[in-house]
Structure formats: C-alpha cells, structure tokens
Amino acid sequence: MSLKTFSRGGIHPPEHKLSYGRSIEILPPPETVVIPVSQHLGAPSRVLVDRGDQVLVGQLIAESNGFVSTNIHSSVSGKVLKVDHFMDSTGYRRMAVQIQVEGDTWVDTIDRSDDLVRNTVLASEDIRKKILEAGIVGLGGATFPTHVKLMVPGGKKAEYLVINGAECEPYLTADHALMMERSEELLSGIQILMKGLEVEKAILGIENNKPDAIQKMKKVAEGSNVRVQGLKVKYPQGGEKQLVQALFKREVPSGGLPIDVGVVVFNVGTANAAYEAVMKNRPLIDRIVTVTGKSLQKPSNFQVRIGTPISHLVDRAGGLPENTAKVINGGPMMGKALATLDVPVVKGSSGILLMGLEEARRKEVKPCIRCTKCVTVCPMGLEPYLLMSLAEKALFERTEKEQVLDCIECGSCSFTCPSSRPLLDYIRLGKAEVTKIRRARKAV
Question: What is the pLDDT of residue 119?
C-alpha cells in the first residue's frame, strides 16, 4: 500500500497509545452537568431555559445566535439549577447551564435503536439544516460549526471531501476506537457529508500505525465512492492543511482554507455525529474521550455526556495517580493544562492526559543557539525562533508580517528545541495580540 505524507517539516514524537484497542465504554450521566453555551468557534448560543425548568435529553437549551454559531442541547434529563458563569477548561468563567440529573428521559423524536440506517432521501440543503439543528461542530478540536463548513462560499468549488482519521497526537485513541466499532455508521456519515457538500469523491486518511482501522474501513467502504488512504506516521499529519498537501499535493495559501484548493476536511467524529443527526435525529449530546496516562490504572475510551465533570472520567479510569503533576486537556503536543478537574467535557474534548512529575517538568530554558531545528520541523514554513523573539519584545505588527497567524500550534518547534525554549507559548501570545490588532482595525 502506497503511504502518503506532507512534504515540509514534521516530527516523530514517541507513541504512547496506552488505550489502543480498548473498547468504548459508555458512561452513565453524573449527578449534575454544566453545559457551556459557547462550545464552538463563533458567537455564543442564546440560552432558552431558566432556573427551575425541567429538561429532557436532547432538548434544545441554547440556540444559534449568529451565522457562525450553533445549537446546544441538554445531554441529560432533570432540573435546571442555575444559568450562570462557570469555569471551563480555559480557566475562565463562561455562561453555562447547570442541570441536576433526574432519571434519563429522552426527547421522543430521537431514534435510540442500534439499527443501521442508510441512504438518506434528504436534499443537500435539508442535510445542512439538520446538522445545524443538531449542533454539530468539528470534533477534531477546532469546533467550527459543521453546517457553515458545508456552505461553500461563492466563487469557490468543492471537489473532494477529506475525512481525517490520522489521530496523530501520541496518546489519543478515541478516533481509532470509533473507526473500529462504528465503521458502518461512519461510512454512512461520510456519504451524508458528501451529499451535503454536493461532491462525488471522498477520501478517508488514516495513519499507518492503525492498520486494523485501515483494513476495517477499506472492507466497509468497498464498492462505495469513499477511498481509504494509508498515511505515513508523521506529526502533525492530522493538520488539515498537511492532510490536503499529503493527499493531493495542493498547497493551501497563507491565510487561506482547504476550500481555496477545492477540498473540505472533517474529522471522523464529525462524520459519525452527522450520521446520528440526519439518520437518528440525535443532536450532539455526547462524544468519545480518551482518558490516559502512564501511571493511570485504566487508560480508557469513554463515550460521555457533554457537561460531565472531567473528575468523573478520571475516577472511572482508576482515579488520580499520586504522582500526577499536570492534567492536559487534549494531547501532549497541542493540549493545554487544566487548573482543576471540576470543569466539564465539551464538544471539543478529545482527550484527557495525566502526566507524572518527570514527564510534566519543564527543562531549564537556555539561550537560542540558532540551530534552526524549529525552522526545519515547522510544517507551515515559519521561523518559530523569530516569532518568539518578536512576541517577547511585544513587536506585534512585525509578528503579523512574519505570518504568525499561519501557525497551527502543533508544538513541533517546542518539542525539538535543544534549548527548551517556550516557543509555542510565545507564538500563541503573538497570535492572540495580532488577532486583537486586526479586530481593532476592522472596528475603525
């Protein structure tokens, strides 16, 4: 089998797929959930419920509040305790709905059977409407509203749908578990997205360290218009621009999107959620999350309701190990440390990584030796050492000129730096400040 990969930069961090091969365990709802109304890129949703209201599983509790926004549904049944600000995984307090769980009563229009349903009769416009109503967002981490991504801008044309099954983060296995256990549903979801996008060709890219998933999906997709492509194991293979370059040798322009070269990319979890929305009338109320770590008693792949405290997942995986020094929301390369475990799982939660003291400890920061390793590994062709220096000196207009916003925050530069410099930390600062500058310009 011919394996493909992107041509510029990339690294090979050691793999620790500790939960590889673990079946998806469906967790029961906790006693209470906290469901943020901003779990997506764009405008926060508008809350529709008040304290004391009774809600059902799948009931709309906050509606889309703009073009780039989406719906939020209750993941449990019970009583609304509060509509207030709660801390989320960013460490900030944001508007959310707290619900006390009482039973598990679902909206009666949701099909809860395991029966596979194929071949939707819905037109593309109706598919997009269903996906909007169900609150589907990108489940690979970006959380961009899916219905918006299916609306190709005027003057552009979608030729290919790409489904991202690379899962290149060293510890995460949620996408692998999904492909192994729900392959038929995934294929149906891919075909739904193809119809919503109005394209005839789709490619599912999977890294070669998941040979069982490649074999399984090839067998399921046989005779369909979906091609399964093996990819070389190289980080960040799952970056959408890198995936497009690997599959088609097309370069997404600076500041551009894959649609600029005729491609739209979705994660496998998003495709599965599209299947459930269109074929089962089931909104996005839960997702698969990997909970892992070298000292964890039971690394696992959990299907968990949105709004469940992360502490609940850690407890089900064997509890917090004594040597835990840091808990990462996501993987070690792109994830961010949590201040507390008392924050909720949201639509973009792909994994929780518990790190011991030795693994989490940052090494002493030394002066840059101009080795250019960070430049060599950058998949976007940037100069990370320069971007860090500019951000450190608050030279943000120069940082903008050096195309800091093209950074995909993969962390390859920090990983390879022999001087242990916090390159990505400062680049993130630079991106945030440049974004503020651009917003201020538009406001004038």
Answer: 82
Domain boundary among 232, 265, 280: 280
Provide mean pLDDT across the span 186-205: 97
Domain containing 431 equals: 373-443
Task: Name the percent of the chain lying above pLDDT 70.
Answer: 100
What's the CA gap between 98 and 364, in Å, rounded?
A: 42
Directed axis angle between helix 268-280 and helix 174-181, to 10°? 50
In one letter, which amino acid is 82?
A: K
Say yes or no: 379 and 243 in one domain. no
Last residue of a domain, one of 280, 312, 336: 280
Pick from 159, 275, 166: nearest CA to 229? 166
- The reply to whether the predicted model has a pTM over 0.90 is yes
H/E element holding 279? helix 268-280
Here the CATH number for the domain that contains residue 221 is: 3.40.50.11540
CB atoms within 10 A of CB 403: 16
| Contact residues for 167 (Cβ-Cβ < 8 A; gap 6+) | 173, 174, 175, 176, 207, 210, 238
- Could you tell me if 272 and 409 lie in one domain? no
Q: What is the pLDDT of residues 372-431, one digit of tens each?
A: 999 999 999 999 999 999 999 999 999 999 999 999 999 999 999 999 999 999 999 999
93 has which bridge partners?
87
**Residue 293 within any structural domain of the chain:** no
What was the pLDDT predicted at 444? 73
The DSSP annotation for 397-442 comes to: HHHHHTTGGG-----HHHHH-TT---HHHHHHHHHHHHHHHHHHHH
Separation CA 223–CA 299 (nearest Å): 36
CB 351 within 8 A of CB 172: yes
Residues 267, 391 share a domain = no
223 within some domain: yes
Please check whether residue 319 is in contact with residue 295, taking contact to mean a CB–CB distance below 8 angstroms. Answer: no
CB 204 within 8 A of CB 187: no
- Number of domains present in the structure of the chain: 2
Supply angle C-alpha 19, 10, 267, rounded to 5.
50
29 has a pLDDT exceeding 70: yes
Asked, for residue 434, whether it belongs to a domain, the answer is yes
- 1 band by pLDDT with thresholds 50, 70 and 90: low
Give me the helices (H) in 268-378, please: 268-280, 310-316, 357-360, 373-377
> What is the number of other CB atoms lying within 10 angstroms of the CB of residue 378?
24
Residues 137 and 252 in one domain: yes
Tokens representing 141 are 């981490």
Q: Is residue 5 part of a domain?
A: no
